[in-house]
Design a protein that fits this description.
270 residues, 10 helices, 9 strands, single chain, globular, alpha/beta, binds iron/sulfur cluster, two-stranded antiparallel ribbon, 7-stranded mixed β-sheet
Length: 270
């Protein structure tokens, strides 16, 4: 990474930590339920603070993590992430009845929006509270598909292998071999419900052959100029290629990250 870029991302990371601590002092008591975010690309998502939940970030994370840039890194968004984590921390030790009530609330939000899938950790990562809530949601509301982005094999191991839970292990060129081994062991036991997604940072940055989704580097309007691989998410492909799709509604239309059958139609590179 270029030195000035590295210095900048280190600064942003430090600022996020300060903002997170500051937000924790000002939790709004009325925020009893989770805030389910909504955006035009990924639909509904639950976001939590990266400064406290991303325990397994890689050396390359700071080059492409969109949680470090733009509106999602500003104080108002981080306040929401911190409040979400406060709800999840409460659920980590709450009664099953309380967890189920929160599951019913999130399911109702999705129903009102007409969404039948939920992205977990649009920014941030799993925690004991989110694992409990996910378990309850997948059991009580089986028609909702859960797209769970994580770098924690340890917390993912607390999730059941169910048809409506799709665990996406995010990796890049700097993922530690021991983490990759743990992810692959989980995937092997998951009967196709878990998969690898690779953040591709250069044209010669070749993903492992068992990756099912490749995210070519993209930030705001920038999209990597290199040609797509068969597994590349089309919403990250440069618009100069005919296969590229616009961001708006791309996940609702595509569904590969939360539909096992569609995922298996895209063969990893031989
Ligand atoms: S592969 Fe499809 S579902 Fe996954 S992020 Fe890209 S557009 Fe969304």
């Amino acid at each position: 990474m270029h030195n000035s870029t590295q210095a900048n991302t280190t600064r942003v990371w430090r600022r996020l930590r300060i903002v997170t601590e500051d937000c924790a002092q000002r939790l709004r008591p009325e925020r009893y339920h989770l805030h389910v975010s909504e955006n035009s690309k990924t639909g509904s998502s639950i976001n939590v603070p990266i400064a406290t939940t991303c325990q397994n970030k890689t050396a390359a994370c700071t080059q492409y993590c969109y949680g470090l840039l733009g509106p999602i890194s500003l104080q108002a968004s981080i306040q929401t992430h911190v409040e979400n984590q406060a709800v999840l921390n409460r659920l980590a030790t709450a009664s099953y009845k309380a967890v189920k009530e929160e599951a019913d609330y999130s399911a109702a939000v999705l129903t009102v929006r007409g969404h039948n899938f939920l992205r977990w950790n649009g920014v941030g990562d799993l925690s004991l509270g989110s694992v409990r809530l996910l378990r309850a949601l997948s059991k009580q509301h089986p028609a909702i598909q859960h797209w769970v982005s994580t770098r924690s094999a340890q917390l993912a191991a607390k999730l059941p292998h169910k048809d409506n839970i799709h665990v996406m292990f995010s990796i890049d060129q700097s993922t530690k071999p021991k983490d990759l081994t743990a992810f692959r062991a989980y995937i092997h036991a998951s009967n196709g419900q878990a998969f690898l997604a690779y953040a591709q940072l250069a044209e010669d940055d070749v993903p492992p052959t068992d990756v099912h989704v490749v995210f070519a580097q993209h930030k705001s309007a920038f999209r990597a100029p290199w040609p797509p691989l068969p597994q590349t998410c089309l919403a990250t492909v440069s618009l100069k290629y005919p296969s590229a799709v616009a961001h708006d509604n791309s996940c609702i239309s595509c569904r590969r990250c939360f539909d096992k059958t569609l995922r298996e139609q895209i063969s990893p590179t031989p």
